[in-house]
Every structure is written in C-alpha cells, then in structure tokens.
Amino acid sequence: MTGEAERMAVPISVNVNGVRHETEVEPRLLLVYFLREHLGLTGTHVGCDTSQCGACTVHFNGRAVKSCTILAVQANRAQITTIEGLAHEGTLHPIQEGFREKHGAQCGYCTPGMIMSAGYLLQTSPNPTDEEIKHALEGNLCRCTGYVNIVEAIKWAAERIRR
Amino acid sequence: MFPASFEYFAARSVEEAIELLTKHGEDAKLLAGGHSLIPAMKLRLAAPRYLIDIGQVPGLSGVNVDGETLAIGALTVHADIASSDLVRQWLPGLAEAASVIGDVQVRNRGTIGGSVAHADPAADFPVILTALGASFVLVSPSGRRTLSADDFFIDFFTTALKPNEVLTEIRVPLPPSGSGTAYSKLPHPASGYVVVSAGVLLSRQPSGQCLSARVAIGGLGSGPLRAKATEAVLQGQPLTAEAIAAAAAKAAEGANPDDDLYTSADYKRHVAAVYARRAIEEAARRAAG
Q1: Would you say A128 and A136 are in contact if contact means Cβ atoms under 8 Å apart?
Q2: Cβ atoms within 10 A of the Cβ of B109, count?
Q3: Which of A53, A106, B35, B216 is 20 to 30 A from B150, alpha carbon to alpha carbon?
Q4: pTM tops 0.80, yes or no
C-alpha cells in the first residue's frame, strides 16, 4: 500500500474456509482480490469486469455471491467459503467428483464458480431438474463447454449426495 | 477494473449514516448491497470520495405485516423477497419481480432499498412498486416522511431522495380480496435488465368486472410509466381476453421511447403491449382466485 492507502486502511476480521484472518485493507480492495492476492487462494477467478460471469463465486455467510462485486471491508465478520474449502482432507466434494466423472470442465476457468453455485443450489434443492440447474447457473458463464456436461455433472453429484 | 480510492465508514445506525451524509454531502454515497454502485465504481463511472456502508445496520431488513400494509426493510435482499411466504401469499407479482432480477448471486446481495434509490430505468422494482401503489419511508435530520412511488421516481437514476436522506422501508398496501398482482418481463438476453416489463395490480368484482387497475410499464422511458390509457379501458369492463387485449394495446400510449443498441422504439412499443397483456391476464386469473 502507498502511504495514503496505509492511512486509510480499515481493519477486518474474516473467516475463510474455517480460518480467521485479521488484517487491514484498503477500502477499495475487492473481496476477490483479497482472497487471491492477500490469502493466496487463487481458485476464485476474475473473468469479467461487469459482474456477469460468476467465475468469482464464493459462499458468503452461506449464500452464493460474486466476490468481484463485494468489497473486502464488507466481509468484516463474515464467513467465506471458497472452492479450496470444499474438499475435506484430500477427499473431493461430490460436486468436484461429478465434474470429473461427467467431463464438466474444459479450460477450467468457470469451473470453481460453477461448483460453488451448484453447491448453493444443492443445499436447498437436493433433486433439481435440468431446468432448475440451468436457472440456478444463470449467473455463471462458460465459453467452452456449452453447459451440457456441467448440468450432467451437477445431476450426478446430486444423486451421489442423496445416496 | 477496481474503484478509485475512497474513505470508508461502516455506519452502525441510520442516524450515524445521516450524520455522515450531511457532513460529506455530494462526495458521499451510501453502500447497501452494492450491486449497482460497485459495478459503476469498478468502471469508474462513479467515484465517490466517501462510502457509507449501511449493510450492517440492524433492523433494516425483513418482511412484516403491519396492519393493512406489507412493510419491507430497505436492506431486504431480492432473494428473500422472492422466497418470502408473506410476499408470495399477498403480492405474488412482487415476488415474481424480485425473482427475475439479475441472477442467483445478485439476488443474494442486491437490496430492494438500493434498487429503489438507484432508480435505474431498466430495473424491475420501480415498475412493480409503482403498480402496487407502494410508498417509501425516508429519514433525514428533519424527521421521517413517506412518499408514494408515483411521486418518487423522477428521471433516470433520479429520485425525490434528498442528499442526506436514507430510505429505510418500503410499504405496500395489502390488496383486498378479489385482487391480483403480476409482473411480466422481457429481459435483455445478455444483461438480463428490462427491455420492457409490466407490473399490474387489479381488483375484480365477483361478477367478473374490473373494479380498478394499476398498470406500470418499464423500459419505455426514464422510469416506470403508468399506462393510464390501459387502466381507463380496463375499469368497469368484464375481464375477457378481448377486453384485456384491447386495454393492453394502449400500454405504450403517451410514451416516447428511444431506439437503442438492442432494439427500436417501435419494437419496444409493440412488446410493451404484449407484456402488459400477459401481466393483466395473470393478475386477472389471480384475482378470480
């Protein structure tokens, strides 16, 4: 930070993937850059400049949100889960497995955002239809796959979780 | 990319927010959900020097019945309005409008108060709230006042809010029995914003005649427009398909939309009538129970 930015630094306490971080940030620091650059959690991606693509999707107090459209200072006292927080001690989350089983990723850029949005959907809709999945993913854009295998991956995961 | 520098305050109360707004004047902006303001700041279309975050102010969120009124806290997010049992029961048109804003992630952060105060001409809430005859509670150093939606939306991104005033609550009259509400929208295929939309509050006599109707159209001007010609045709008429179509055909009367990058003024006038018809038909179905 520059001298001026240091003088304006705001203290925040944020819980990310179960770990509490207490630090000071510039007010204009976006949450996505806080996660990527301050915490080194680069699984959350920046894919657009217009809050459309959803590659930055994380869970904020249990809700799927676009971390590029939230200031880090707004996350004070919040609980954040990123893609890195899904797997447990090396065991993939069923949604991550689904993307492997059903070839839901090509370049992988949209994938963490897709998985975080899918996770949010399956919290409240454990048996979603194709239409419900597509509706839930309206905030996540993919330029590679045409979405077909993404929907299949999520259906596979939903069935796996129900078992 | 990222915003220009600013000084940040996390207000702990409405009073504190008002103090800060009064102190910093035009250089300050309120931050609620931030899903209109932060995108503008990232593109540097907005660069306030002071940001007053009211997102953590307690008591400004929630949906409650207050006498004959549904009272909605200004910080209530769109997702919670869309899924609220109270809203879906009493004002399904309002839940519908909330459910088609943006996408899931946007609806988890964007607030009804922010949408109303921002007054984007392509937004959903100003249209449905105008149709529903909503009013807005505004708090300033001089006290509280309540303004109707009809008087609140003045121009593009311009409302009757004073510079140091905070919108705290949206109040919607509970419709009497025999009423129906609906919201129908043609979204821009890329952005999801309104190309045209129609919000309707309709009251029906048991005999099937329209007692009264409020029809608001979005996308044809600088804010929501009341389709007074449509309302006049509906009043006292039996709510048949033909009568509704004839009324809806006048939805764009008095409006003067512009051509834009997406489509022409003629197209907007034409589809305004289509979406008005759909919304009126749905409201009439709901009114008939």
Answers
A1: yes
A2: 26
A3: B35
A4: yes
Chain B residues inside the 8 Å CB shell of A27: 5-8, 51
How many C-beta atoms lie closer than 10 Å to residue B179's C-beta?
Answer: 20
Contact A139/B43, CB-based, under 8 Å? Answer: no
What distance in Å separates residue B18's CA from the closest CA in chain A? 19
Q: Which residues of A65-86 are buried (b: 16+ CB within 10 A; e: fewer)?
A: bbbbbbbbbbbbebebbbbbbb
Question: Which residues does chain B have with pLDDT short of 70?
Answer: none
Alpha helix ranges (H) inside chain B = 14-24, 37-42, 78-83, 85-90, 92-99, 104-107, 112-118, 125-131, 149-152, 228-234, 241-248, 265-288
Which chain A residues are within 8 Å of B102, Cβ to Cβ?
Answer: 139
Its domain, for residue B237, covers 179-288
- Say which CATH number the domain at B102 has: 3.30.465.10
Query: Is B58 inside a domain boundary?
Result: no
Domain count for chain B, please give it: 3
Average pLDDT rounded to a whole number, residues A13-39: 98
Chain A residues whose C-beta sits inside 8 Å of any chain B C-beta? 4-5, 8, 10, 26-30, 33, 49-52, 54, 57, 60, 63-66, 68-71, 73-74, 76-77, 117, 120-121, 136, 138-139
User: Is A5's pLDDT higher than 70?
Assistant: no
Is the predicted pLDDT of residue A4 greater than 80, yes or no?
no
CB–CB of B38 and A70 under 8 A? yes
Q: What is the pLDDT of residues B193-216, one digit of tens each?
A: 999 999 999 999 999 999 999 999
Using the 3D structure, point to which of B173, B206, B228 is the last residue of a domain. B173
Q: Is the pLDDT of residue A1 over 70?
A: no
